[in-house]
Amino acid sequence: MDSTIPTTEAANDRAHPFRSAERFMLWIVALLGYWAIRIVGRTVRWEVEGWENYRAAEQAGKRIIYTVWHGRIFPAIYFWRDRGIVIMTSRHKDGEYITRVIRRFGYGAARGSSSRGGKRALVVMIRQLRGNKDVGFTIDGPRGPRYVAKPGAVWIASKTGNAIFPFHISAEKKWVLPSWDHFLIPKPFTRARVLMAPPIYVKPGASEQELEEAQRLLQQVLDEIRLRGDSHWDGDKTQ
Questions:
Q1: For residues 4 and 107, is the Cβ–Cβ distance under 8 A?
Q2: Which member of 19, 155, 165, 199 has the lowest number of beta carbons within 10 Å of its beta carbon?
Q3: Mean pLDDT of each 10-residue bin along the chain, 239 residues long
Q4: Where are the chain's structural domains?
């Protein structure tokens, strides 16, 4: 993993020791998760709408704050792999699974969530942005409510001036798990659409009202691309 990933991540990991049997299960599940994502991801036929929005953020000289719904993390991990993006992951056991999987795809992890360690993780992510690394949020994670954006991305955008980049991934053929986030797994060889919205900016020193307006805009954009992406496939019944 990239040596620039913050040392506080390792400290967070040590705060949650696991017994030998638990460590073995974590290793097995993470390994299976890695190969499932890699094998399926290689077979997916990707269709992208909005690359110009991604390039606009790059051409503006901004780092990128990726935002996606928690249930779409399976295809997102593969699509954005090997870019050194630092992702906020929960300090719960499910976050440990995700962390061990994403590291194999070239991501870093800032351990924390809205319920535990979140402020520390946001500080780590700001430090990474200032060190020329991109960061990412599963914006309704780690526990939901589903499709309700949390304020972390808007807050760090206001502190750094970098670009919030909402995107969504939908699949023509998929499995949808009966979990709180409706976790989506694309079926092998399916088509998948990646919708990339225009970047959202929050000025430094934004007022409380301006932060709330940016949060409403982010929610609106994420809702719009989700509905448009998922309804693209005839007969889609996942929502």
A1: no
A2: 19
A3: 39 53 84 97 98 95 97 98 93 82 95 66 92 96 93 96 98 97 98 98 95 98 98 66
A4: 9-231
